[in-house]
Design goal:
Layout: E1 14-17, H1 22-33, E2 37-42, H2 50-54, E3 57-60, H3 67-72, H4 74-78, E4 85-86
Parallel strand pairs: 1-2, 1-4, 2-3
Length: 89
């Protein structure tokens, strides 16, 4: 298997789930099963949320946005070190 491919043959190395809660946790679990690393983003209000700790990496975003706005800000999400970005990959 090539070094730039995950266990199932995909070319992605890291997956960012721009969600929180149970949805993000399920995405991170699936990424792990596929041999991919996962990245979480969280707002300051969600700094203690479970999805932050279930990902391999996490980044605080949206200090200037509302808590929900932090997850919807595509510019912020595109600055994280991940290949595909969900939910709108």
């Amino acid at each position: 298997m090539r070094a730039d491919m995950c266990a199932t043959g995909c070319k992605f190395k890291k997956l960012l789930a721009a969600n929180r809660g149970e949805i993000a946790i399920r995405v991170f679990r699936a990424a792990k099963e596929l041999g991919m690393r996962s990245v979480a983003i969280y707002s300051p209000a969600d700094r203690l949320a479970q999805h932050r700790y279930r990902a391999d990496e996490s980044f605080c975003v949206g200090e200037k946005n509302t808590p929900v706005g932090a997850y919807l800000d595509y510019e912020v999400r595109s600055m994280t070190p991940a290949d595909p970005v969900g939910p709108d990959v």
